[in-house]
Design goal:
8 helices, 7-stranded antiparallel beta sheet, 4-stranded antiparallel beta sheet, alpha+beta
Length: 297
């Protein structure tokens, strides 16, 4: 479990790294499944693959959606007990896994992703950050550094709501003093707030960079930021279907012989996953921090 100071550092910076959290059979099976998905994406086989313009302007494979439907290991890793505990500590409320994807930067041609904030903070009307923590869980499958297109982020800006990133050219943000390159290893997990400004450059190396993304949400965050969005309405909200999907993830771990939630500090309830003990975030933690920082002269 995270120590209290680690939770506080996450809330202050807007991102944190959990080194080596996914390991052993979880990581081995995940790597093998990701290999198969990438092969299909590059060959344009199957569905739900996405493409971006690479360095030469030609379309290059970039992303695959609906990983939970592709291989049981993606469901199983989503219900990893150690991962769920850390998420529960940082959210401070019951939560469910909501959506997922695999994001890929292929060697030498992996596309850049301009500086941005994730939905709903791309909306200029989002003048304040929502009180309940909202972040993506980024499970790294490969070493990621400046050469193969690692993520850059600006710590401490996640509490500012929408930020106008057009005040600087995209390349200027990467060179800005406050921008931090986030170097990761296979099995490391990055929590980064949806409101944290971030971006990544092209992959200029001969090494692939793959990240399995899962978005875990508290219900009130879902209702505030996503429930009414047309693009999000196809994803089940807080319902029996959502609970059944979470239960299927627990069952996937059992079927693959992976460590179960038995003995962990997270239980699956009708309200979602609930942390039962240990240091955790206060309710509406980001609202408290926003008020605190606004009072600092």
């Amino acid at each position: 479990m995270l120590e209290e100071f680690e939770i506080e550092c996450f809330h202050a910076a807007g991102f944190t790294i959990l080194r080596g959290l996914i390991s052993g059979n979880d990581l081995d099976l995940l790597l093998a499944a990701a290999d198969r998905v990438v092969e299909e994406g590059v060959a344009r086989q199957g569905s739900d693959h996405k493409y971006l313009a690479g360095p030469d302007g030609k379309e290059v494979y970039w992303r695959s959606e609906n990983m939970w439907q592709r291989d049981p290991i993606f469901q199983a890793v989503t219900a990893n007990p150690l991962l769920l505990e850390a998420i529960g500590q940082c959210i401070g409320e019951p939560f469910y896994p909501w959506n997922d994807s695999l994001v890929v930067k292929l060697p030498l041609v992996g596309a850049a992703v301009p500086w941005h904030q994730d939905p709903p903070y791309r909306n200029p009307d989002r003048l304040q950050t929502y009180p309940t923590p909202n972040f993506t869980t980024d499970i790294y499958l490969d070493h990621s550094d400046e050469e193969n297109g690692c993520v850059y982020a600006i710590p401490g800006k996640h509490l500012d709501g929408h930020i106008d990133l057009t005040v600087k050219a995209n390349e200027e943000w990467f060179n800005a003093e406050e921008a931090v390159p986030i170097v990761m290893e296979p099995g490391d997990v990055l929590f980064h707030a949806l409101s944290t400004p971030h971006g990544s450059q092209v992959n200029t190396s001969d090494r692939i960079r793959r990240v399995f993304y899962v978005h875990y949400l508290a219900e009130q965050v879902y209702q505030d930021g996503y429930a009414s969005e047309p693009w999000a309405m196809e994803i089940p909200g807080w319902s029996q279907a959502r609970h059944d999907a979470a239960q299927a993830m627990v069952s996937a771990r059992e079927s693959l012989g992976l460590s179960s939630a038995a003995g962990s500090h997270v239980v699956l309830t009708d309200d979602g996953y609930v942390l039962t003990t240990g240091p955790t975030s206060e309710k509406s933690q980001w609202s408290k921090l926003s008020r605190l920082f606004s009072e600092i002269p």
